[in-house]
Write a structure and sequence with these properties.
Blueprint lengths: L5 E4 L6 E7 L2 E3 L5 E3 L6 E7 L5 E3 L2 E5 L2 E8 L2 E5 L3 E2 H4 L4 E5 L5 E4 L2 E4 L6
Antiparallel strand pairs: 1-2, 1-5, 2-3, 3-4, 5-6, 7-8, 7-11, 8-9, 9-10, 12-13
C-alpha cells in the first residue's frame, strides 16, 4: 500500500512542508500544522524518480530532453501532454522542480525554469 501524504509551500516562509492535509494546513502530526499556499499542494504519487527523489503532483520531471508536469487525470498519475502513465516510465524520470516553485515557461522541449535554463 502506498503512503498517503502531501506537500505544500508554507505561507510564512515559502519552504516545503510534508505530511497530512487538513484544510489549508499540512501537518506532520496532530499538533504541528502549517498553513500552506493552496495552489502549491500536491499529493505524493507513491513513486520515486531515478535518483530516489519522491515524485509529487505538480512536479516538473525530465525524461531525456523533454520535461513536463505530473498530474492526476482519469484515475491515474500522468505526465502531460506526452500522455505517459507515470507508473510506466518513472524509472527514467528526474524531478527538476515544481510548477508552483520558481518561474516556469513552456517551450518546445517542455517546461524550463527561466532562472536556471534548460537542465
Amino acid at each position: 500500500m502506498r503512503e498517503i501524504k502531501f506537500r505544500g509551500l508554507r505561507i510564512d516562509n515559502g519552504e516545503w512542508v510534508y505530511g497530512y492535509l487538513c484544510g489549508q494546513y499540512i501537518a506532520s502530526d496532530m499538533m504541528h500544522g502549517k498553513i500552506v499556499q493552496p495552489k502549491s499542494v500536491g499529493q505524493f504519487t507513491g513513486l520515486k524518480d531515478k535518483n530516489g527523489v519522491e515524485i509529487y503532483e505538480g512536479d516538473v520531471v525530465s525524461c531525456g530532453e523533454y520535461s513536463d508536469v505530473v498530474e492526476w487525470e482519469y484515475g491515474c498519475w500522468r505526465i502531460k501532454p506526452c500522455e505517459e502513465l507515470l507508473g510506466d516510465c518513472f524509472y527514467e524520470l528526474d524531478v527538476i522542480g515544481n510548477i508552483n516553485h520558481g518561474e516556469w515557461v513552456i517551450t518546445e522541449v517542455g517546461y524550463v525554469n527561466i532562472h536556471e535554463g534548460v537542465k
